[in-house]
Structure formats: structure tokens, C-alpha cells
Amino acid sequence: MQTLTALVFDDFETLDLFGPIELFGSLPEYFHIQFASMKGGIIHNHHSVALQTIAVAELDQQTNILLVIGGKGTRLLINDSHFLQTLTMLSDNADWVLSVCTGSALLAKAGILDNKRATSNKRAWQWVTEQSTAVHWVKQARWVVDGKFYTSSGVTAGMDMALGFIADRHGRDSAKEVANYTEYRWQEDSHLDDFYNC
Amino acid sequence: MQTLTALVFDDFETLDLFGPIELFGSLPEYFHIQFASMKGGIIHNHHSVALQTIAVAELDQQTNILLVIGGKGTRLLINDSHFLQTLTMLSDNADWVLSVCTGSALLAKAGILDNKRATSNKRAWQWVTEQSTAVHWVKQARWVVDGKFYTSSGVTAGMDMALGFIADRHGRDSAKEVANYTEYRWQEDSHLDDFYNC
Q: Is position B56 within any domain?
């Protein structure tokens, strides 16, 4: 059993979080999910979502997989040194770090992706890539894998990446079964990027 | 501005809810979102999600669009007459009623879909269709429209349906813009169903 910790903050992007959560959550024999935030309690976003979370300091499970999501809240967090230090600690202690959309901007700003290949949302590309010149940014990709880091493009790309991660760890049949269960048309090819020029 | 009320219950399916919420929430100029449950407070599901909701009796906005989701919790709710009465009241008062996955089983059991064409999750097809023989069930469909009712197939079919609803009300360009923003490969054809025989 692997514990997946999703790091949540105010004004997170709804589907950056809940797309991967649905897919990992469909395999409860492999993945246990917990939602964390800096202070714990209820986290709100611009889609009226109010989600209960555990404070990072109170997490009692070792995090095997860290999920770092994006959204408007990242615009403030890139200037929050306490948040970036916590992100670095969580990332260092995790076996795998997965980001969706502008979540990779947070990892980049914290220096966690230095000398790594990574991608992000195409609509926010300039802002994201400005957060670090030490990252080897890959623009045309649905998701990118470098060592323990999986970074995906915008919003729903996180779902294709999550299935890719499941396929890499537990076999393609497991990923296909989850895709069928959720009636999701999985884009299996991480290099194919329909939104490169949108 | 249209108010979309999502009706939530314990053991709801995560992405049945948050897929459509992401897409409607991407057009805040058209849609205001609220999450309701029978008693209000925190609603939990099997993916560790704990979501704050408003009690149905305390909703202060008229519901224009009612979103009825599915999940394991529906297995209990089909025997809950108070829930089904409330669902009927909410449905009668809404301009549009949208269901995802086994949400249509709830509508069917309440008699709301009598003499209407409707679809549902293919994995739960037998159980869903047993809830009412007065519904004209359409098995091979991504989603089905009949009057004010939009019913979709399993989980991610709700996202294609949501974009279809947006296209029907606000034009295809609006739906395509939301799909591009979320980097979602929208399946526009409601008749195409990859999961009919899965």
C-alpha cells in the first residue's frame, strides 16, 4: 500500500486535484489517499469547493507519492518561502513526486526540478518557465518523466499522467481497467500534445 | 447568471462531481456553483474526500441547473424515500437536470425520468435499468438529452455532457474554449460510445 498525499491550497484548480484522485482512488488495494494543507482545516477555491484537509505537520502516514497541483493560488505561493520549504521537505521525503498544470511552477521555484526535464500548462507557459531557468522545460508533451518526477500539462493532462504512473508501477492492464471503469478515453502517449499550439 | 446546485451524498463518485464542476466553473460569467446535501455539513467518500455542503433546506439561491451524481452511495439512496422526495422537488423546480453515471438510477427510481430517454454507467447497467421500466433506456450513448434532462454514461462521460450542455446554451465556441483551457480532448459526439461493450 502506497500513501498518496495531495498538497492543497486556497484557489487550487478543481480537476488538477480530483482527476488524479479518482484514478488512484479506483485502486484502493494499491493507494491510500490523504489531503494536506499548510495549516489544515477547510481549503476553498473559486469553484465553491470547500475541502477538509490535514495540516502537513499532523500527517501521520509516510508519503510515498506527493501530488502537487496547480491553479490561481500558485501565483501567491511562489513568493511564500515557508510553503516552498515545506514543499521541498515533502518532495525530498517522497518516493515519487507528481505535478499537474502549474504545480510544476511551485516545484521549479523551490529548486526541486533543477536540471530535470519537466512540463506544465500551455496557457501559463511563460509565467511557469520564468520561475526557473535551471529546469529543462519540455513544451510539447502531455506529461514528462524524469527520475522520481512526473510533471503534466494542464488540468486533464494530470489524468493521463496518473494512468501512465499506474501503468509504470502496476502494469498497463491495471491502468486500462481504471480507464474503462471511469469510461475515460486515456491518451496513453505522453509525447502527443494536442494543446501545444492552442 | 445560472445557479448550478450539485446534490452530494456520502460515498459519491469523486469525478462524477468534480469533472462537470471544473468545466462549469471555468465560465463564472454564466454559472454560480453550490454544493448541497440532505443535512448539510461535511460529506465523505471512499477517496478520502471530505466536502463542505449546504443543507437543501437552507439553499438561498433558486436552482437553475441540478447536477445529480452517482457512486456507491446510490445503492442506499434508492431505498430512501425522503431523499427521493427531495430529489423530485429539486428536479421539478430546476430548469435543467443533469445526471452523471448512476445518478440516473436515482432519478429513475424517483419516477422523474418516466417516459424519458436516458442513459447511465455501462458497468452498472443492469442495476440502473432495474430501478424503472418506465424509462426508455438508451445503452449506446455518451449522453442523452430529452427535454430538460441530460443524462450521461459513467464518470468522465459527465465532462463530455457538461461541455455539450454549455455548447447547447452558450455556443460551441464557449465549450471549445473551456476544453482548451482545461486541455481536455472533448468527445463532442453524444452518440459515440467507446464503453458500450467494455
A: yes
Please give the ipTM for the structure prediction: 0.95
Residue B33 sits in a domain whose CATH number is 3.40.50.880
Interface test with A, best of B53, B181, B183, B185 (most A CBs within 10 A): B183
Domain carrying residue B82: 2-181
Q: Are A110 and A93 in contact (CB under 8 A)?
A: no
Give how many domains chain B has, as a whole number.
Answer: 1
Q: Is residue B192 part of a domain?
A: no
Q: Does B111 touch chain A (CB under 8 A)?
A: no
- Domain-embedded: residue A68: yes
- pLDDT tens by residue, chain A, 198 residues: 999 999 999 999 999 999 999 999 999 999 999 999 999 999 999 999 999 999 999 998 899 999 999 999 999 999 999 999 999 999 999 999 999 999 999 999 999 999 999 999 998 999 999 999 999 999 999 999 999 999 999 899 999 999 999 999 999 999 999 999 999 999 999 998 888 876
- State the nearest Cα–Cα gap between A182 and chain B, in angstroms: 5
B195 within some domain: no
